[in-house]
Amino acid sequence: MTKDISNKAIVLVSGGLDSATCLALAIAQGYEVYAISFDYGQRSSSELDAAKRVVSQLGAKEHRVIDLNIGQLGGSALTDSAMHIPEAESDGIPATYVPARNTVFLSFALAWAEVLDAEAIYIGVNALDYSGYPDCRPEYIAAFQNLVKLATKAGVEGKVIRVETPLIDLSKGEIIKTGMRLGVDYSITVSCYQADDRGKACGHCDSCRLRKQGFVDAGELDPGCYQ
Amino acid sequence: MTKDISNKAIVLVSGGLDSATCLALAIAQGYEVYAISFDYGQRSSSELDAAKRVVSQLGAKEHRVIDLNIGQLGGSALTDSAMHIPEAESDGIPATYVPARNTVFLSFALAWAEVLDAEAIYIGVNALDYSGYPDCRPEYIAAFQNLVKLATKAGVEGKVIRVETPLIDLSKGEIIKTGMRLGVDYSITVSCYQADDRGKACGHCDSCRLRKQGFVDAGELDPGCYQ
């Protein structure tokens, strides 16, 4: 590796199983990893506790938890306790969609990547077993990658900060198998949209259903805690 | 105007003369205006005081000031008091560049636009008399507009949130003339990168120099206060 190539990567870590797997993959690629999480007024604060556990167990050079006020802008069942979290699968984009969430998250990751001279940003989006969010699709990621080239000092100087989405084409079952191979301990992750303060999952929301089916498909036992 | 077309617009307001003019233009277009400003750890807190004065004088349905922690990520003379603010014009991108700033700002504006069902986001970027920031260029704005279509629930449903940059091709002198026509009071704006607590400008930084030359070109007196 030549001197002018950084081997740092930013990894977005939510505390769920996808981002834990993504972190393990970035580490396995040999990156010096900088983890970033967001306190955006999500209902479930146990998600952030899980993010801290995951980063601490898998290891990272640094972990920043950024306080955001995106929740105060409203518009999502994930941040607004007056809105109902749907349990049945919905047509179209569900009430748990947080407006422009990944764009806000990736923007912060991009800012930090520029400051650190990192060469990649890892985000655990997944286009198969997801909740129908527009900002998890490959075409969205491609548009953000295009923006990165034009938005940054690094881009103007010809350096590319790559947006890496290693889970994008995997099923939940494949993600779980990958993580198990890399030694991810899924018992410390929290996937639920409305986990209680101790991190116990509801077992019924869209995210819980996708997780449970994933473990079934992977032929593994789900070590998560349910209420 | 049909019922399903919203006539709300988000306007990014920094407290400088460009964004004040941009706000006046959005109001002149008949929009119900929602102003958004960011406390991102900028050295000069008088910038935010100016933003509040500008919004209060020109009028907006609502004004949100979002606390961001982008400054804590470092990397810019505008947020890091250990870095020197350059006074001479520099080649390339200057030290006052804040990594990914406009991307972070526009992401928040986009989130609020989705929540409010707004049809436009106004940002006062300018490609002529600017400081060489990559995220002020037309190609950057085009890339963000493309992202908007893919990032949002609105976009998936076929609604376009337009990113409006009415100042992009204007010189600083033309911006000032436009604002004067619309009754903008430039005495309450602060353009300086290092204004003091009372909003008095240094008169020497890149931003002050562009402002002073703009008033000369417009044939108007600069009503700003200098130290």
Strand content of chain A: 5-15%
Element pattern of chain A in H and E: EHEHEHEHHEHH
Helical content of chain A stands at: 25-40%
Runs of chain A in which pLDDT lies below 50 for 5 or more consecutive residues are: none
Q: Major sheet of chain A: size, sense and barrel closure?
A: 5 strands, parallel
Count helical runs of chain A: 7
Oligomer, anyone? homodimer
What characteristic shape of chain A results from the CA principal axes? globular
State the CATH topology of chain A: Rossmann fold
Widest sheet: strand ordering of chain A: 3-2-1-4-5
**Structural class designation of chain A:** alpha/beta
**Quick check: average pLDDT of chain A?**
86
Question: Structurally, how many domains make up the residues of chain A?
Answer: 1
What's the CATH H-level homologous superfamily of chain A? Answer: HUPs
Rg of chain A over CA atoms, rounded to whole Å, is: 17 Å
